[in-house]
Design a protein that fits this description.
four-stranded parallel beta sheet; 67 residues; 2 helices; alpha/beta
Length: 67
């Protein structure tokens, strides 16, 4: 199982969430966005600082989806 995080939850970031959540063998673990709102994926932890994901969350891959 690949553990994945997403940095940025704009339009494209939400597309990454949608696709990752549907892929077999992928565990979508965390996301980061400056203003935290309710998650579209209930099991997903959302942080307000991307550095927390990079420093503290054990991931195999990260999508950086920011302008």
């Amino acid at each position: 199982m690949i553990r994945v995080g997403v940095i940025g939850l704009g339009n494209m970031g939400k597309n990454h969430l949608r696709v990752y959540s549907r892929l077999e063998g992928v565990n979508l673990v965390a996301a980061a966005v400056p203003v935290v709102t309710e998650s579209e994926i209930p099991a997903l932890t959302i942080y307000d600082d991307y550095r927390i994901i990079l420093d503290r969350v054990q991931l195999d891959a990260v999508s950086v989806v920011v302008p």
